[in-house]
Amino acid sequence: MNLDSKKAIRIARAILAGDIDIEAPRRNAYSSIPLFLAGMGAGLALGVLFAPSSGEETRMYLADSARQGLDKAKAKGEEFSRRAQDAVNRGKEAVTRGKEAVSETVESAKQSAKQSYYGEKTNVS
């Protein structure tokens, strides 16, 4: 492709004016997640390959890091489980209190109805 200076200037003006969207083909063709994961994997591989430690030390470090991560995940899971159980218990207690309040209200209404009914019968006769 023969690119003279006038053509280059016209292209630059079009890009700067916003007439050409240079990001559009890239946005349509690729998703950023797979590219990020590929970059992360490549970085990890290069980091392990060029690590200043020996292979055994690196494996021990990775195993320790994995163990620590697993322990943290387990602790978070237990904390989440405890919180969920607390929430369930609070919900059960609230339901029990609500049932008791409804039962007391119903009993009170029954007593009031009986008193009204029998009070009217005794007053009428």
Q: Could you explain how this protein is built, in words?
A:
The chain is mainly α. It has one domain (5-124). It is built from four helices and no strands. The chain has helices spanning 5-17, 24-29, 32-49, 55-124. The longest helix is centred in the C-terminal third of the chain and has 70 residues, at 55-124. It starts with a helix and ends with a helix. The mean pLDDT is 80.
Write a concise synopsis of the structure shown.
Helix content is 86%, strand content 0%. It is mainly α and 125 residues long.
Give the SSE order as H and E letters: HHHH
Count of alpha and pi helical runs = 4
- The chain-level mean pLDDT equals 80
- Give me the count of strands: 0
**Biggest sheet character:** none
Helix and strand composition category? mainly alpha
Quaternary class: single chain
Distance between the termini: 116 Å
Write down the domain tally: 1
Question: What value does the Rg take, in angstroms?
Answer: 37 Å
Amount of beta strand = under 5%
Low-pLDDT stretches: none
List the main descriptive attributes of the protein structure presented here.
single chain; 125 residues
Please outline the helices and strands.
Elements: H1 5-17, H2 24-29, H3 32-49, H4 55-124
